[in-house]
Structure formats: C-alpha cells, structure tokens
C-alpha cells in the first residue's frame, strides 16, 4: 500500500478527507479545511496534518471571527503546537498567539561580504577560530542601557541608533550603514512595539547592561553559516541584490531569544484566560484573541520582533569586526532580512506565519537547506493561493531524538559544523532534513518563487 493510501485511511478514521493533485494535498473535515504544497516523493505526516487542521478550526467564543484560510509550504512538519510551514489568515481583529509561539520573529539575514572564496580559504582557520570565540564562547562586549532598549521599543530602530554608546562593539560599527540597511529588513517599518511589554531587566533604568542573550544564535535549528555563491540563476536580480558568483556570504538564522519566550508565553496564557467563563473550551485547546486584546498582542509581538532585529544586527557587527581585522577590509552589506515566525497585517487580514516566509511579488526571501545542502536566495511572486508565502527551509524529516542515535551521519555529506555541544551536530545533521531540491522545485512550479542564487555551505556555527 502506498504512503498516500495509508494516509487516506489513517486520516479517514479521524473524519479527515484527503486528496492529492498537482503537488497539492487538500485536507478537509467538518470544522476546517487546508492545503499543503508538497512533492509526491516527500512524506505527509499525520501529526502535522492534525496540528494544521486544529489551527484552521480556531474561532472566537461566539463563532463570528476566526481562521479564514489555512495552508502550508513544503517544509511542512510537526511543531510543538503549530506545525512548521503553516500559514493561517484570520479576520483583521483576531489573532492566535500560539501560532507564533515563543520564537517570535525568528528569521534570517543574508550578508554579502565582498570576499571571494580564495580570501576565505587564505584565512580560513583564523576566521573560524575568531567567529567561534565571539559567537559561541561569549567573547563579546556589547554594552547598552535601559534607555537604549526603551528607545528601540517605544521609538524604533533609528531612535535606538541615536542612543548607542561609543564603547565596546559599538565603537567599531558604521551606524549610518545600519540605518541604511533598515530598508533590507522586510516588514520591520510596519511593526509597532512598546517597552511596557519588554522584560523589566532590559527597561528597568540601568545605565549599563550587558544582555547575555544579545548576539547569540540560540539552540535548535538556529545557525550562523558562511556560504559561497556557487551559481547565479537570475543574473538581473542577483546584480540588483549585489550578489556575485564565488562570493562569500553569511546567513544568520535566529530570533528574539528570551524576550520572545517572555512575550509569547505571557500572551498564550492571556488568550486562554480571556476565554469566557462557562463557555465550552475549544476541543483543540487553542485560543484566539479579538478586538483590543488582539491589537495589544500585535504590539507585544512587535516588541519581541524589534529585539530579534537587534539580535541579528549585533551578530552581523560582531562578524564584520572580525572579518575586517583578519582580511583588512569591510565591503559588506545586508542583502535581505526577513522573519518567518510572525503575524503581519495584509489585505485586511492577519497573516500568521509559523516557519513560513513572506514572498510578495518582487520581494527577496531566503530558503536554506541544511549544513550539507544548498541554500537559495529567491524572489517572491506574490502567489495569492498560498497567501504570498514560501517555505523557510527544507523542513525536518527526522526528529531530533531519533538523530541522536543515528549512525554514520557524516558519511554521505561533506559538512563542517562548529558547536559547543556534540548532540547539536547530530540533531542538526544533513540527514535530519528533506532534500532542498524538490522543495525549491515544487514552489517554482506553483508560482510561489523564482530562484536568484544558490549558495553552498562552508562552515556552520551552532550553539
């Protein structure tokens, strides 16, 4: 019996109808429906389907507001609460905090360095040693004040840049370049935030604080990776982005760290507490917020999102500083930065993306593979059928627990991972992920993206 037939039977026992046509799974049950874009040779997981339909069924207590559209990109797989790769559209005054969870505004940034592969090879050992020191071994000095954090949350990135001290890391940065690169951060200008939603430790009035989370990638699948541009697929778009063949680029994948955990946890609790007393609880255990509470959640979420932006900025500047010292020049610039765990207001709806990337027409996006597979710079095509979204990666195919006991994980791939924890190397090995080729191909065929450039990994840093 084929995987498709088995899935039809298994899901049918739970009242879910399943069909497949032209690379798209159509899912429906009495209270919800959804679509999943997935190549036929990649497995559809029952748990991920159950999670997606649970989110597709979320409604307000009176049933008048809720999810309007639910779909998933090809990196679709089960998450802790929401499935990774999910995109859910709700009414404009309704949000589901659990759809984003605690890794708020997790996203990716791509930086062109101006260095060629030969430059990297010449200084390879020193580059790896120094980046390990500043990224993983806490050899960094990033002083800030509560006033600077308040400026970030209440005013925005430009106000924050006006409050930077001229000591530690900040004495070496080009503040005007950081300001110019704000344009490369997709959606950042539209985010609202407020210091009242931030942890007291950051905004409590301290003149100097050194946040231990700031400038760190975090655990799980987060990474910082040096890559080489091995193929230009759209020379006009690559030229506009400043990407050149054989250039070394840096991909940063991280989020809002403890600030996201703080905000996300509080607001998932708030959504549950806001459910009317005496009203039957939703079978899914998932709760939405409506009206003023929904709008306040978006402000709280935006507070974590601005911190995520700052975290990626600090990582960027730490790397720039080391490469300039080692290579004697700094011709770097940010190509694009885009979050894939966030709620955005689009076309009169709230678009919830959980491990899915905005891919509006003419907008750059990033789709990494694994430590042993290619990553892609792509151009969104604004495909409305998929809520102007694309995948945020290849997607896991083997759970972390299973990878810890896998054998010969290095045999089939040439890859280099620098990490403080050996289990991280095992959990995130290339075999844990789907092959990136079919994931990219099915999205091109469906009109979600056009590919711009393909990058191969040189070395990955994981906490």
Domains (count): 1
Within the CATH hierarchy, at the fold level, what is the topology?
tRNA-splicing ligase RtcB
CATH superfamily: tRNA-splicing ligase RtcB
The second-level CATH architecture is Alpha-Beta Complex
**Terminal-residue CA separation:** 42 Å
Q: Mean pLDDT, rounded to whole units?
A: 93
| Low-pLDDT stretches | none
- Give the proportion of residues in helices: 25-40%
Enumerate how many helices there are, as a single number. Answer: 15
Structure description:
It is built from 15 helices and 19 strands. The chain is an alpha+beta fold and 463 residues long. It has a single domain, classed as Alpha-Beta Complex (tRNA-splicing ligase RtcB), CATH 3.90.1860.10. The longest helix has 36 residues, at 292-327. It is globular, with a radius of gyration of 22 Å.
Features:
single chain, 463 residues, alpha+beta, tRNA-splicing ligase RtcB, 8-stranded mixed sheet, 7-stranded mixed sheet, 15 helices, 19 strands
Please summarize what this structure is.
It contains 15 helices and 19 strands.
What's the topology here?
Layout: H1 3-12, E1 17-21, E2 24-29, E3 32-37, H2 46-56, E4 67-77, E5 84-91, E6 94-95, H3 97-100, E7 107-116, H4 117-122, H5 124-135, H6 146-155, H7 157-162, H8 175-180, H9 200-203, E8 223-232, H10 235-241, E9 247-254, H11 257-273, E10 289-290, H12 292-327, E11 333-339, E12 341-346, E13 349-354, E14 356-358, E15 364-367, E16 375-380, E17 389-391, H13 400-403, E18 417-419, H14 422-427, H15 436-445, E19 449-462
Parallel strand pairs: 3-4, 18-19
Antiparallel strand pairs: 1-2, 2-3, 4-5, 5-13, 6-10, 7-9, 7-11, 8-9, 8-19, 12-13, 14-17, 15-16, 16-19
């Amino acid at each position: 019996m084929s995987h498709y037939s088995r899935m039809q039977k298994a899901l049918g026992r739970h009242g879910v109808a399943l069909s497949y046509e032209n690379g798209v799974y159509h899912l429906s049950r009495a209270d919800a429906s959804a679509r999943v874009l997935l190549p036929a040779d990649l497995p559809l997981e029952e748990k991920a389907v159950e999670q997606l339909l649970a989110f597709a069924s979320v409604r307000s207590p009176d049933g008048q507001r809720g999810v309007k559209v639910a779909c998933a990109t090809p990196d679709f797989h089960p998450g802790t609460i929401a499935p990774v790769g999910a995109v859910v559209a709700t009414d404009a005054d309704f949000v589901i905090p659990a759809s984003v969870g605690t890794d708020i505004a997790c996203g990716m940034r791509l930086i062109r360095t101006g260095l060629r592969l030969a430059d990297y090879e010449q200084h390879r050992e020193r580059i790896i040693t120094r980046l390990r020191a500043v990224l993983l071994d806490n050899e960094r000095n990033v002083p800030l004040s509560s006033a600077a954090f308040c400026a970030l949350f209440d005013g925005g990135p430009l106000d924050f840049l006006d409050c930077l001290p001229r000591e530690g890391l900040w004495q070496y940065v080009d503040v005007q370049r950081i300001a110019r690169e704000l344009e490369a951060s997709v959606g950042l200008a539209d985010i609202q935030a407020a210091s009242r939603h931030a942890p007291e430790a950051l905004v409590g009035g301290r003149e100097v604080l050194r946040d231990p989370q700031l400038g760190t990638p975090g655990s799980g699948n987060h990474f910082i990776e040096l890559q080489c541009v091995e193929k230009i697929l759209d020379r006009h778009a690559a030229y506009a982005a400043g990407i050149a063949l054989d250039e070394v680029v840096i991909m940063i994948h991280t989020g809002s760290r403890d600030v996201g955990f703080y905000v996300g946890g509080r607001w998932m609790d708030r959504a549950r507490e806001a459910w009317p007393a005496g009203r039957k609880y939703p079978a899914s255990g998932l709760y939405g917020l409506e009206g003023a509470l929904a709008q306040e959640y978006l402000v709280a979420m935006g507070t974590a999102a601005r911190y995520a932006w700052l975290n990626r900025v600090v990582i960027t500047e730490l790397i720039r500083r080391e490469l300039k010292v080692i290579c004697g020049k700094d011709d770097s610039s940010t190509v694009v930065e885009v979050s894939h765990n966030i709620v955005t207001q689009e076309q009169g709806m709230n678009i919830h993306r959980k491990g899915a990337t905005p891919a509006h027409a003419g907008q750059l996006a990033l789709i990494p593979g694994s430590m042993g597979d290619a990553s892609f710079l792509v151009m969104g095509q604004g495909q409305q059928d998929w809520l102007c979204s694309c995948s945020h990666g290849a997607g896991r195919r083997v759970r972390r627990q299973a990878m810890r006991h896998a054998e010969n994980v290095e045999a089939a791939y040439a890859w280099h991972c620098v990490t403080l924890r050996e289990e991280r190397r095992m959990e995130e090995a290339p075999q844990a992920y789907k092959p990136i080729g079919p994931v990219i191909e099915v999205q091109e065929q469906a009109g979600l993206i056009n590919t711009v450039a393909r990058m191969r990994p040189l070395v990955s840093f994981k906490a």
